[in-house]
Structures
1.
Amino acid sequence: MHYSTIFFDLDDTLYPHGNGLWDAIGERMNLFMIEKIGLTAMDVPALRTQYFRDYGTTLRGLQLHHSVDSQEYLDYVHDLDLGEFLEPNPLLDEMLSDLKQDCWIFTNADHKHASNVLEILGISSRFQGIIDVTALDFVCKPELESFQRALDIAGCPETSRCVFIDDSVENIQSGVEMGLNSILINKQNTPHKEEYRQMSSILDLPLLMPELWAA
Ligand SMILES: [Mg+2]
């Protein structure tokens, strides 16, 4: 099998879960909902769970139900010093540098956040581009439509020749449904499923799929 394209999720995929960044972004989302929309702190967790479940992101729910301006929201929730959470990852850079496939970031976050994260990790130059929430027109993973848009942006590669890596089980299930070779970054030791592979860290990719590096 000759693979042409690899789609990488960003948050909790290209850096390890548990470094506090995702929690800090979540805290900013809560604050936005309290300070900018006027919700009570008690209502926020259930609403976020509901929006995330129904629409893939909190933002989509806020757009639909509270007419939130997406750029104001994205700027607010990502207003963090990323250097507190992330550091350069030369091992990851080296791993990516030897890949021959077109590598894309495929994220529900926005371009600015994604490029800042890539910059700090020291891997910006390894990607063809960033497919972010704006490029997806706010149709987010795990919606199947978002995968179709990502494939279109990446030049319509055959799905069987694509690899998709993400830390969300729901997103991986959609990837499988779309026919992508999907790999879960298993951060919670979810039981093994037959329909997709999994690894605990992005750095395990060469062990799981050495064929990606084959000449
Ligand atoms: Mg993620």
2.
Amino acid sequence: LPALRAGDERVARRTAGLAVWAGRLLDLVFPPRCAGCRRPGSDLCAACREEIHWQSGPACPACGRPGPATLCSACQRAPLPLDGVRSAVEFAGPVRRAVHLLKYRGRRRLAPVLAGLMIDAWPQRPLPVDLLVPVPLHPSREAARGYNQAAELARALAPALNLPCEPRALVRRRVTRPQVELSAHERRANVSDAFAADVALAGGRRVLLVDDVCTTGATLGACAQALRAAGSAGVWAYTLARAAWDPERDTTGDVLTEPV
Ligand SMILES: [Zn+2]
Ligand SMILES: [Zn+2]
């Protein structure tokens, strides 16, 4: 029924347009509030920006975990199938609250604000890549959330890095349990084989995976395996934030658990 489909598309476009206008109107009526402290005036105020811990110190060259600039104990035991992981900031304080709002409260416009932190940190440790690929959500989860926060970050990041962004290069083939509260071993099993990469889009290219938070790197590792199987020439990862992880105790103590 092509006529009906065309009509549906028109309605969908009009609805999306209305949502955009409603959002703009709300922004006019209600000034932006700081994601960190809720004070009105901006999406992330100067005081909260001061609180941000940049990940600029020494770190494991493979997984990016802060510490001595040598291979960490976790990477010695089970190396990630990645060329390396970098993160802009620590997953704490205002950044943690902002990520929570972006992922679970529909505050989509925080994506370019948070991508701004990634843009600021990039020149310190740039990576030799050709293409940005966000870590995909399963389509059902993306539909529930309305967007993929990793794709939002990657889209904002791409022009600043002067690199293309290709969200279709990687798909999530099955719904996985939220990684929060799983051990490192469980995390790897949970996302193993969950992703598939497009040979035409990712083959022969050096990919920069983009995600919001890296904890053990299990999700990034599973994505990298799919990209390597599709012939990618290299796979690096760049996340907004790095969550604390104790490889000896195998825990984050993370309580940010609110899966969609
Ligand atoms: Zn603030
Ligand atoms: Zn490591």
